[in-house]
Automatic annotation (TrEMBL):
Keywords: Acyltransferase, Transferase, Tricarboxylic acid cycle. GO terms for biological process: tricarboxylic acid cycle. Belongs to the citrate synthase family. The active site is at residues 269, 327. This is Citrate synthase. Pfam families: Citrate_synt. It catalyses: oxaloacetate + acetyl-CoA + H2O = citrate + CoA + H(+). Coiled coil: none annotated. GO terms for molecular function: citrate synthase activity. GO terms for cellular component: cytoplasm. NCBIfam families: cit_synth_I, PRK05614.1.
């Protein structure tokens, strides 16, 4: 059956060629289409970054305008899809709702199946980028037992998300521009990260020719786990559990104990063996948002800073090159903004949808692409005969 290499966890297997995102894990460098994440976060909006990721170049003013208009045009959900929410328990985890709703988009846009047509592909990409904030916000409203808020075209992408999350029909709502900008930066920092578990899942699902909505739903399912996108939620739960700066030492000790499965959530990364550049930017966003909202003395933020300080001085973490990752600070920012803990991973999914769909499109337009089919090392019993019932 031919030779292959056993590589559990894909530590040394490159699964594809890609021109989208570059990571230098030793330097702590992240580039989208060659541009450093620091410059993009500082100078571009998330939708400009989305355009860049897909098209390979930043949009000029006219292209930006047209792209933003197209996204706004598709932000609404079909009424039947809105009624689909009612099938979930009211306390359903919003990630469970997202897996379902995004997968269900497949049932609404049949032309998405024919993705060899560039126009159809473009429509699917626009629909996903446009509808994800609406889907996330409606999951939140559903959990809260509040009326869905429809998207507003006079607001930008992040402001509109805040409006759909936090506005109610009874009162005037104006998104705080500093907070909206911080949210936009969070989206940019999460937009793509080359062949991580969820992106690889999207590619593997897409390699069979499955439709893009089904593939993104698979990516959302994979992102949910606490070793991946679920880490921001797990990190905040951990900070709540630690509760007080005086208990940080105890938890650091647990994280180092081989017999204890506890890990410091928001710490460590498969590729970054230096400070995660996204975490550095997120830390600054955290300062900005807490400052704007007058929460500089936030208990959890102080706790996080102390945890980081102690861990970065501890030999165990230094030797293993364990630094805070993007999820370490993103939860604190989101909590300060008023996003509940269970929604953190949904916000990650909203932003990463841009990377997933870009990677999906790169794959299916690559003339060399084949169905993904990993091999295995079989360790089960050798051939044997089925015994009669009396002999079992
Ligand atoms: N706390 C304590 N020890 C850790 C941690 C941690 N967070 N992460 C790794 N280690 C130790 C681990 O015990 C092992 O030690 P030893 O060599 O003595 O056995 C060593 O560091 C290497 O760990 P590994 O599990 O082999 O590394 P990996 O590349 O397979 O795992 C990881 C990477 C991100 C899954 C892991 O660091 C982890 O579980 N971190 C916590 C969860 C987390 O924050 N995930 C978010 C990742 S970034 C954003 C995203 O992908 O969503």
């Amino acid at each position: 059956t031919g030779m292959f290499t056993y590589d559990s966890g894909f530590l040394s297997t490159g699964s594809c060629k890609s021109a989208i995102t570059f990571i230098d894990g030793d330097k702590g460098e992240l580039l989208y289409r060659g541009y450093p994440i620091e410059q993009l976060a500082d100078q571009c909006t998330f939708l400009e970054v989305a355009y860049l990721l897909r098209k390979g170049e930043l949009p000029n003013a006219a292209q930006k305008d047209e792209f933003e208009r197209s996204i706004k045009n598709h932000a609404m959900l079909h009424d039947q899809l809105m009624r689909f929410y009612n099938g979930f328990r009211r306390d359903a985890h919003p990630m469970a709702i997202m897996v379902g709703i995004v997968g269900a988009l497949s049932a609404f846009y049949h032309e998405a199946m024919d993705f060899s047509d560039e126009e159809h592909r473009t429509m699917s990409v626009y629909r996903l980028i446009a509808k994800l904030p609406t889907i996330v916000a409606m999951a939140y409203k559903y959990n809260m037992g509040q009326q869905f808020m429809f998207p507003r075209n006079d607001l930008n992408y992040a402001e509109n998300f805040m409006h759909m999350m936090f506005a109610t029909p009874c009162e005037e709502y104006k998104p705080n521009p500093v907070v909206a900008h911080a949210l936009d930066v969070i989206f940019t920092l999460h937009a793509d990260h080359e062949q991580n578990a969820s992106t690889s899942t999207v590619r593997l699902a897409g390699s069979s020719g499955a439709n893009p909505f089904a593939c993104i739903s698979a990516g959302i399912a994979c992102l949910w786990g606490p070793a991946h996108g679920g880490a921001n939620e797990a990190c905040l739960n951990m900070l709540e559990e630690i509760g007080d700066v005086s208990r940080v030492g105890e938890y650091i000790k647990r994280a180092k104990d081989k017999d204890d499965s506890f890990r410091l959530m928001g710490f460590g990364h498969r590729v970054y063996k230096n400070y995660d550049p996204r975490a550095k930017l997120m830390r600054k966003v955290c300062y900005d948002v807490l400052g704007e909202l007058g929460l500089e003395n936030d208990r959890l933020f102080k706790l996080a800073m102390e945890l980081e300080r102690i861990a970065l001085e501890d030999d165990f973490f230094v030797e293993r090159k364990l630094y805070p990752n993007v999820d370490f600070y993103s939860g604190i920012v989101q909590k300060a903004i008023g996003i509940p803990t269970s929604m953190f991973t949904c916000v990650f999914a909203l932003a990463r949808t841009v990377g997933w769909i870009t990677q999906w499109e790169e794959m299916i337009t690559d003339p060399e692409y084949k169905i993904g089919r990993p091999r295995q090392l079989y360790v089960g019993p050798a051939r044997r005969d089925v015994p009669d019932m009396a002999q079992r």
